[in-house]
Amino acid sequence: INYFIKKYEDKIFTHPAGVAIHHDYSSGLLMHITSMAELALFLAEHYEADKDLLITGCLLHDIGKLIELEGKFTFKYSTEGKLLGHISIMVSELKQASKELNITSEVPLLLEHMVLSHHDKPEYGSPIPPCTKEALLLSMIDNMDSKMCIVDKALENVEPGNFSSKVFPLDGRCLYKRK
To answer: Which of 10, 109, 143, 163 is the most exposed place for a label (fewest CB within 10 A)?
Structure first.
């Protein structure tokens, strides 16, 4: 984690997590990964998962977006981002970091698996499904955190007692804001 914080300290505190769907604002990536790490603290203990591995996965899974997205105030997909995507970018980053740090345990492999599978299904961008307890939890936490951000964004300007417009990332449903 320290390796990546040092490597990307100029971007990690300001980048969004996306350009349109969720956490698409300045420092959105930091908000997303820290929110996920907080959820992971509880869930790792509750489900007897490896807490350190799960929290590390939460903090690192989207760091590839620091290369995938470019800009200062408005962000767009970089050429590398469009051609490779944040998932494959991050797998390369993990390989490079474990080589430079001379990490020989299975942890880098488990983290690579978590990054590769964090979108859960091929139609959502993951080449493989989660195959460890920690990878499955990461995928579920990521899905929950991103969807709740989408919900908050959709209901932001809705008056209590009314419905939002269709929310396409949530299957086009309209959300009700309680009175």
So the answer is: 10
Helix (H) or strand (E) holding 69: strand 69-70
Which DSSP helix (H) or strand (E) runs through 148? helix 133-155
Other beta carbons within 10 Å of 100? 10
Q: Would you call 88 exposed, middle or buried from its count of C-beta atoms within 10 A (0-12, 13-18, 19+)?
A: middle
Model-wide pTM > 0.90 = yes
Enter the tokens of residue 4: 């990546």
> Residue 73: what residue type?
F
Q: What is the pLDDT of residues 99-144, one digit of tens each?
A: 999 999 999 999 999 999 999 999 988 999 999 999 999 999 999 9
Predicted confidence at residue 38, as pLDDT, reads 97
